[in-house]
Amino acid sequence: MSVAPLSTTAPVPRAGETLPQVARTVDQATIDAYARASGDFNPIHVDPAFAATGPFGRTIAHGLMTLAYVAEMLNGWSRGAFDAAGTLDIAFVGPVFAGDRVEVNGTVDDVGEQDGRAVASITLEAKAGERTILAGRARIPLATQSGTMA
Amino acid sequence: MQRYRRFDEVEVGEVFPAAPLTFTADGEKVAAFLAATGNDGRLYRDGEALARVPSMIACVYLIDLLTARRSPPGGIHAKQTLAFHRPLRLGETLSIQGRVTEKYVRKERPYVVSTFEAHGEDGSLVSSGQVTSIWGRDP
């Protein structure tokens, strides 16, 4: 099947622009469903008795599940450009527990140019309440209608 | 089932698995991934039909890859870099392999750093990156 690629033509962002937030409430059912979809049945995620003996004392969500929320935010904002050629560099700095509401935010902190394309550099942060659970950066090359920088 | 490996058995430079593993981005896996992450999938459908693959399906094939290292249960994902080099097509099969590039102990926690590459059927690079893991407790 041949499918046309998503258009990545988009207005050039400006430094300081914030991306639409992605938020999810995570419970044990969410974690278990992600385990089934990803094949990651590490007991620190899905076995309360095992997790009780670990460093967090209870199950935690998969870090890559939070990263999927980050990708959803980046792709929604860039109209799929992150899927095509994005990069990211993040650290999982805190656990997500069942019952947490995870909020993923991004801010454009620079817009440069590479090979004639605008490249947005984005600061990423995910929080659960006051706790930071993920921090890092992403870069997304963006095709623009004019091919020039705003 | 193969036994788990102790931290001191992991060697910098080792390639895992010995032969690249394969992962096919079929519609069932993509739909399951989107549903499990609460993604409505609107970017990936033409009408009702699934037509594209979220590049972050890497979250799934990375687990297949990391499982090949045979870390004991309880390991934790600490850091991740990812680069997507081109879109992944629905139904495309990737070949994926990793390499241990560093190991160290910090604050009494054993860390293993690995790089990986995923190639498409035409040999082109689809994704690459680096995973920093806290190794599971030695068996």
Key structural traits:
heterodimer; A: 150 residues; alpha+beta; Thiol Ester Dehydrase, Chain A; five-stranded antiparallel beta sheet; 27% helix; disordered N terminus; B: Thiol Ester Dehydrase, Chain A; 2 helices; 7 strands; elongated
The main pleated sheet of chain A reads as: 5 strands, antiparallel
Number of helices of chain A: 5
Name the CATH homologous superfamily of chain B.
Hotdog Thioesterase
Describe the global form of chain A: elongated
Order of helices and strands of chain B: EHEEHEEEE
* Quaternary class: heterodimer
Provide the helix percentage of chain B.
10-25%
CATH topology of the domain at 65-142 in chain A: Thiol Ester Dehydrase, Chain A
Give the spatial strand order of the biggest sheet of chain B: 1-5-6-7-4
Protein chain pair with the most extensive contact, residues per chain: A-B, 43 and 39 residues
Q: Architecture of the domain at 65-142 in chain A, CATH level 2?
A: Roll
What is the number of strand segments of chain A? 5
Structural class of chain A: alpha+beta
Regions with little confidence, pLDDT below 50 for 5+ residues of chain B: none
Fraction in beta strands of chain B: 35-45%
Task: Please give the number of β-strands of chain B.
Answer: 7
- CATH fold-level label of chain B: Thiol Ester Dehydrase, Chain A
What does this 3D model show about the protein?
The complex is a heterodimer of chains A (150) and B (139). With 150 residues, chain A is α+β, with helices and mostly antiparallel strands. Chain A has a domain at 65-142: Hotdog Thioesterase (Thiol Ester Dehydrase, Chain A, Roll). Chain A is 27% helix and 32% strand. Chain A has a 5-stranded antiparallel β-sheet. In chain A, strand 3 (101-114) and strand 4 (117-128) form a beta hairpin. The longest helix of chain A has 16 residues, at 63-78. The N and C termini of chain A lie far apart (37 Å). With 139 residues, chain B is mainly β. Chain B has one domain: Thiol Ester Dehydrase, Chain A. In chain B, 14% of the residues lie in helices and 42% in strands. Chain B has a 5-stranded antiparallel β-sheet, covered by helices on one side. A two-stranded antiparallel ribbon of chain B has the order 2-3. In chain B, a hairpin with a 2-residue loop joins strand 2 (45-46) and strand 3.
